[in-house]
Every structure is written in C-alpha cells, then in structure tokens.
Design goal:
- By secondary structure, the protein is of the alpha/beta class.
- The protein has a 6-stranded mixed β-sheet with strand order 2-1-3-5-6-4.
- The chain binds 2'-monophosphoadenosine-5'-diphosphate.
C-alpha cells in the first residue's frame, strides 16, 4: 500500500484555519490517500519546513499570514503570479524542485466573477495592507480596474506596497495611497483589514455619506456579515463576504497538488459555517 501523503497549512496563529476541513473533505471524496493538517510555525522554522517538502516528508503546503512573503527565499521557483505579488500561499514539489504558487489571485477572481459585478474601469478603495492585499491588487489590475486606492492605518505599509507593485507590475500610476480615515469617492470598497473577525469590532470610518450603488466586499467570511458589510447593506449597496474566495483558493491548491478539480457543493458551504 502507498504511504499516506501529508499536507499542511502553516501560519501563526493557525488555530482559526478551516483549510483542513475543506481539504480533508475533498481528499476523502476523491479517494486520495493523504491527510491535511495545520501547524503553527515561527519564522525561524521556515527553511527547515521547505526542506521537508523537498525531501518528500511533506507532500505540499499552504502558507498563510504572516509567512506568505517570508517563505519565498527558501523556495526554488516561483510562478509569475507569486513573483508579481511577492506572495506564496501554495507549495508543491515538481521534478525535485519546490515551486511557490499563489492561488489567492484566482480565488478572488473566481469569487468576483460569481457576483456579476463588472470591475472594468472601476475605482476601488482597499482598506488594509496585510497578507492578502498584494493578491487582490494583482487580480484587480487583471480585471481592468481604472484606479486602486490604498488606505491603511499604518500608512507606510501601504506606500511600500504601492512602490514594490509599481516596480514589478505597472507602468502607470494606477495605485494611490490616502490617509487612514479619508474616504475618497469609489465604486468598490474592500475590507482587507482584520477588523470584524470579532463580531463587535467596527472600523472607525464614517460610511453614512456614501451614495448608493456601490459594492462592499469583505475578505472576512466568519462572521458571515461583519459590521462593515452591514453598513454597506443598510445604505443600499451590493455586498459579498470572503467565503467564496476562501473556497476557490483552496480548490485551486487542491488542483495543483492532486490534478483533480474538487467539487464545490452545499456540503462545503456547511463545513465553513460551523
Ligand atoms: P499582517 O499585517 O501581519 O499581514 P493581516 O491580518 O493580513 O496581517 O493584516 C491586518 C491588517 O488589518 C493590517 O492592514 C492592519 O493595519 P496595520 O498595518 O496598521 O497594522 C489592519 N488592522 C488591524 N487592526 C486594525 C484597526 N483596529 N484599525 C484599522 N486597521 C487595522
């Protein structure tokens, strides 16, 4: 009998991660002899961790905050998407080499496609500058948005992100940075901060003067409706949480490792609602 393959998601903290629920569901469903677990690591453990993939002790991994960038120096090869975002969330071994992939980009694109909201030539305001924002920016520019405005509590982080992006991906000034607290005019607003992960948390921003017809997107999916999405809805705007993005990024990783398209069904939805 073949030895059972081991996959992992690593991050810090990691307890909250629901990736094992999804991946193990699909592994079972597709009769694949493997398990998927989660592990909290420290930054000093990353080198050894990647070596374990190289030596096949671990078959593949997902990387989550805060290591999506920090893992890069230890990986042999990057896909163009990982290179363009400085962000890796999936590692596989291919012909003896570790390859860093980014499935957050496709995850976001597929989730947005299902909302039927057309992002072409739109003005998008992103709140936050953390782990997932480079991938969202990459996806937005691929979707043909006109302008991306970054706003982060620590402005310097947003500025650094804009500068590294400009160098890698853009010839024109598609990204601007504004002070935290400013709400310039936008078509789409994306909450990519961690504010709202706890039910009572509220962004210290005043949305009351925003006109109708906007699109409010929250990367958070648990709770289902953050105060940010509630505010958007109350003002008569379209809203969407990050659940589909999470499912699609996981499905893309599954496809990369197992060469099988996993089924996204009602059971998957229920697994994540627990
Ligand atoms: P990381 O920053 O380690 O990548 P993350 O969870 O991906 O972690 O990102 C957290 C984001 O939420 C950051 O943009 C953070 O802003 P700072 O860069 O200023 O830390 C933002 N954030 C967290 N708490 C916040 C708060 N109370 N108000 C506004 N933004 C907040």
């Amino acid at each position: 009998m073949n030895k059972i393959k081991k996959f992992l998601v690593i991050g810090n903290p990691i307890n909250h991660s629901l990736s094992p629920e999804l991946q193990n569901y699909w592994l079972k469903k597709n009769n694949i002899n493997a398990i998927y677990d989660k592990q909290r690591l420290d930054i000093d453990d990353l080198r050894d961790f990647v070596l374990k993939i190289k030596s096949k002790e671990i078959a593949g991994a997902n990387i989550t905050v805060p290591f999506k960038k920090e893992i890069i120096p230890f990986i042999d090869k990057l896909t163009p998407e990982s290179e363009g975002t400085d962000s890796v969330n999936t590692i596989l071994l291919n012909k003896g080499e570790t390859v860093g992939c980014n499935t957050d980009i496709t995850g976001f694109e597929k989730a947005i496609k299902e909302t039927n909201y057309n992002f072409v030539k739109k003005k998008v305001l992103i709140l936050g500058a953390g782990g997932v924002v480079p991938s969202i920016i990459f996806a937005l520019q691929r979707m043909g948005v006109k302008h991306i405005i970054l706003s982060n509590r620590t402005k310097l982080k947003a500025e650094e992100l804009r500068n590294s992006y400009k160098k890698k991906n853009f010839n024109e000034n598609i990204i601007t940075v504004v002070d935290w607290g400013e709400l310039p005019n936008f078509d789409v607003i994306i909450n990519a901060t961690s504010v709202g992960l706890e039910r009572d948390q509220k962004l210290d921003l005043d949305f009351s003067k925003i006109e109708k017809g906007k699109f409010f997107y929250d990367v958070i999916y648990n709770p289902k409706e953050t105060n940010f999405l509630k505010a958007g809805k109350q003002l008569g705007n379209q809203t969407e949480n990050g659940k589909k993005m999470f499912i699609y990024q996981a499905a893309e990783a599954f496809k990369i490792w197992h060469k099988v398209e996993p089924e996204i069904n009602e059971e998957i939805n229920k697994l994540l609602d627990k």
